Amino acid sequence: MPASSEVSTAVALDAHDADIDRLFGSGGPLGPAVGGYRPRQSQTEMAKAVARAIAGQTTLMAEAGTGTGKTFAYLVPALLWGGKVIVSTGTKNLQDQLFLRDIPTVRQALGAPVSVALLKGRANYVCHFHLERTLQNGRLTSRDDVGHLREISRFTKTTMSGDKAELSKVPENALIWNLVTSTRDTCLGAECQYYQDCFVMKARKEAQQADVVVVNHHLFFADVALKDTGVAELLPSANTIIFDEAHQLPDTATLFFGQTVSTSQVLELCRDVLAEGLSHARDGAEWAKVVTPVERAARDLRLAFPQDIVRLSVNQIAPSSPFFPALEKLKDEFHAMLGVLEKQAERAETLEQCRTRALELEAQLERWSAGAVGTPAAKQDAKGDAVESVLWVEAFSSSLQLHQTPLSIAPIFNKQREGVPRSWIFTSATLAVKNDFNHFAAQMGLWDEPAHSWPSPFNYEQQGLLYVPTNLPQPNSSEYTDAVLDAALPVIEAAGGRAFLLCTTIRAVKHAAERLRAEFEQRKLPFPLLVQGEAGRTELLDRFRAAGNAVLIGSQSFWEGVDVRGDALSLVIIDKLPFAPPDDPVLAARIAVMEKKGLNGFMHHQLPEAIINLKQGAGRLIRDGSDRGVLMICDPRLISKPYGKRIWQSLPPFKRTRELPTVQAFRGAGTGSRSFLSDFGGS
Ligand SMILES: Nc1ncnc2c1ncn2[C@@H]1O[C@H](COP(=O)(O)OP(=O)(O)OP(=O)(O)O)[C@@H](O)[C@H]1O
Ligand code: SF4
Ligand SMILES: [Mg+2]
């Protein structure tokens, strides 16, 4: 490339630097819009890098520590210069926070005339067709269901969006929602008599017209894979795609680029075939006799595994297992039902729909069982390239799922990025391990793409203390959780509550809750105990912030995205290093592939994953320039194992100690001269 054009490109890409300096400067428009605003260099630099990626239609991996202010760093350039933007976040909570709080703040501060839409998955919107059907055939048994149905029917007449989040009277997980929402399988699409008023279609249309659309990773990948709720339609016109909490993408994408077929899908289809057959083609077949053998075969397939919950890869199932003949039987019976549907489908639109579903399910069952002959299966993707995948089964109390999961999503995701030139931004506090982005980049197929990590604005050495207690037993021993609690109690007491106890398993959450409840009572400690599952996540956090001396016990969902600034949280306790369970069939297959290539699966996969999780958990502690607190990691492997050093060196540079008195003397959050200990009633 001639030197002059290099220069002109460079000038064009830097064109927004001066604007960004002004916008993020102390006299800029963000100041009045954000309480306690102070220019943060990492934030300003990240915003410039995002602006350059947008201008050059390139990809950027942007890492900056928890609490840096990444949201504004990408929103400002995106709203000003991003064209049509899709922002995807980790959870529905974060989606709402962006849509309701962060985007309006930035839009107003900048005076940017952009329209914004929120797009959720199909299951979030009431479906007129299914609501009507449920109201008419009303086979509801519980009184709750009847009441909820009445509420939903009333709500549907007044709501603009049809989003179930607006109807707080009916709990989000109430079973009735399944009967009044659609799935991709059961939506009639353009044939539907309610098409004009359909909430799903309306949300899609709004998303299509908006400048900025907020989605979540599940929806994004579900849609790219299934082309269902409208993200796939948005993609061609999007100029800028931003993934926040991007460290979650490899897992989410793997979930959706694979395929799953379950016995409950078969049973649901049988239920619909029976109902539709009886109402539209009663004389066409003996419908009960058509579906019963299929239902029986589906149940028998589940019963091939006597255990409650099972996750097994296909090559872990004994060749003599009843599973294989049961699968053949199900395929045969299913095929016979399909034969009847082929003949009767023309008698009603709904029967035709059952036929299409049956065809698809049969194809999935066939594909899975054909692959089950040898694993990992070599599968062909749409362009004929081989994709290695693992076939495995997962049994729940009353259903069995057959999964086919790709071992690498890199080739599939890379294809998504081909085509229209646009900017792809991946941001998170935890994309790299010691400044090395290879692990993330390789998983996502982002080889050789630019990546940058900006330092945290916080002074961890002064603001935080890492405490690793001594004398803890091995984490797999039966007394481990009790030992953690023994070590944690004096620290919780010294901190005056104000603690998160983050556990790696639900079982540990339950045990810790029981034991701490008893201990608090016995020791007359006034700390409110909040336990995951006893109330919704948002409510627990609100109560935690309001109490000012609470102890919250949670598992994975509290490790990420949770923000409690200031005094209310001054102690984060982590029970164990968060390694993925070793019996996971997908993980086992991935490691096997790595080891075939001569790589150590533990060092190249499990350890980096655990470090990322741990950094997210630790990141709950310091959320502001004036926050102070203790991070307590109980796992003795942090010290005893050779890899332990690599783990703690990846954490922010906290001051470190193994002495309880040092912890008890640590000065608490925002308390000036008071110590941790004296925060608690001076005792
Ligand atoms: N320059 C600033 N000065 C003061 N406060 C700021 C500034 N920029 C952002 N904030 C505030 O800091 C908080 C953290 O910002 P944000 O949520 O964007 O952090 P983050 O980098 O995304 O962290 P995480 O990785 O934990 O999500 C927000 O409440 C935000 O309003
Ligand atoms: S188009 Fe689909 S989602 Fe919309 S009302 Fe009809 S069946 Fe329901
Ligand atoms: Mg964030």
What are the main properties of this structure?
683 residues; alpha/beta; seven-stranded parallel sheet; disordered C terminus; binds adenosine-5'-triphosphate; binds iron/sulfur cluster; binds magnesium ion
Helix content: 40-55%
| Inertia-based shape | globular
Mean pLDDT: 87
Largest sheet: 7 strands, parallel
- Detail the poorly predicted runs: 1-8, 374-386, 669-674, 677-683
Kindly describe this structure.
The protein is an alpha/beta fold. It has 29 helices and 19 strands. The strands form three sheets. The chain has a seven-stranded parallel β-sheet, with helices on both faces. Strands 15-16-14-17-18-13-19 form a seven-stranded parallel β-sheet, sandwiched between helices. Strands 6, 7, 8, 9 and 10 form a five-stranded antiparallel β-sheet that branches. Helix 14 (263-280) runs antiparallel to helix 17 (349-371), helix 15 runs antiparallel to helix 16 and helix 24 crosses helix 25 (601-618). The protein binds adenosine-5'-triphosphate (ATP), iron/sulfur cluster (SF4) and magnesium ion (MG). Magnesium ion is lined by residues 70-71, 244. Residues 127-130, 182, 187-189, 192, 194-195, 198, 200-201 line the site of iron/sulfur cluster.
